[in-house]
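Quick one - inputs below.
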Amino acid sequence: MQFWIIQTLNSLAMGGLLFLLSAGFSLIFGLMRIPNLAHGGLFMLGAYVGATLLGQSLPFWLAAIVAGALVGALGVILEGTLLRRMAGNEQGQVLITLGISFIIADLCLLSWGGDPVPLAAPRGLRPPVFLAGFAFPGYRLAVLGFALAAALGLWMLLERTRLGAMIRAGVDDREMARSVGIRVSRLFSAVFFLGAFLAGLGGVIGGPILSAYPGLDADMLPLALVVVILGGVGSLPGALVGSFLVGIIYNFGTALFPDFAYVILFLPMVVMLVVKPTGLFGRAMR
Amino acid sequence: MAIDALVISEIDSFYGDSHVLHRVCVTLREGEILALLGRNGAGKTTTLSTTMGWLKPRHGSIAVFGEQIGGLAPENIVQKGVALVPQGRRIFPSLSVRENLAVAEIKRKGGNRPWTMERVFDTFPRLRERKSQTAGSLSGGEQQMLAIGRALMSNPRVLLMDEPSEGLAPQIVAEVGRIIASLREEGLSILLVEQNLELAMTLANDVVILNTGRVAASGKASDIAADQEVLDRNLGVF
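Output:
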């Protein structure tokens, strides 16, 4: 019983973290039609910056938000300078994001060294929480709660504001969105900031579970890709459901079938690509 | 002499390497409807796409009330007062009816009776009933009305309509026809691409017929409609 409960909680906490990572990835993918291959790098950069800020004895949540904002600002600069120059050349843009990811990885290695840098969870959340006779790791519960709150906030932004409706219009039909007067290039900046902010924030929040280490970017990026393929490109509900699916499949899969650890995530992805290539919540884009 | 609403002058357009439009000229006068006719592949939609800025003309010029718009981006062309009701409607399927209209709103100074969401709902009461529904769940006719309403939300001076009757039931076609006529009554200038010859000839003041990317005939709708030889040669089945 303890096994099932702990694995479930681990799955949900991982799902919550993946949502912070993949919500922005999915929106950028949906609007700009490119997978931002630097997204894992932005997550890792957030973790490292967060570790440094925590070292300056900033409170944990403040450190997470500051790190997220710094990474978000970097995202806007990268989009406005490098990606915008390649407007219309989607293949070129993808290659640029790959190049950026290498640069971020090397600069992190240069600045923070090759050893994992741990991030301490907020003091109040370190002791386990006892519920119905079971001990739950308090921080993982908090991660889950935070991710759900972020999902709600994002949902409000996308579904209840004019900016959100414009972003969704751009995901539905970019050419038509421009033809009704929506300045899609401004949406690119807004979505890139949002996506990079969430990735950086996620890096700090994931820090106490994952630490910051070289290769964290390459570990996280494929997970975001799987989430988006399962959930559907450009869909917020898709990113949420996809994240929890990946969290559950990954945790239970590796615990129950350790021999299949390497394929356990990619099997459902392949099935989805065959059965419903647009993902659970995705639509064909034009 | 009054300035014409839309003057397309000697444009050449390409899809990649394929040369689609050859020195096409179209002049739409203010407050009139000009029907652009031709067989499939004649270049009608390409003419509208070039006017809306989806394609850049490699030759020639496009002017709206004397102001050059050729080569501008679509988001700037709509600011100049051009709006498009595209082929296949292309409403934003995941947005609600209300959101489809809201994202397209452009307020302009002056002008009597500007288009607002309320006015679109007064014109298309069916849309008001479904304003909170996602646009993807509407019927074909309702989607067409939404596409027209969305174009009107930018308070255009020139309206480009690409086959508004396509795939609609006959009574809805008649309703769309009445709406197009009433928009002209208000002074809107309309460039209408239409396969439905009867509808086009009923509505249009002038007609331009394209054949394989070139202007094959142009003139008053009544004259062209009476010229069976021109119709057979350019619109008839081979």
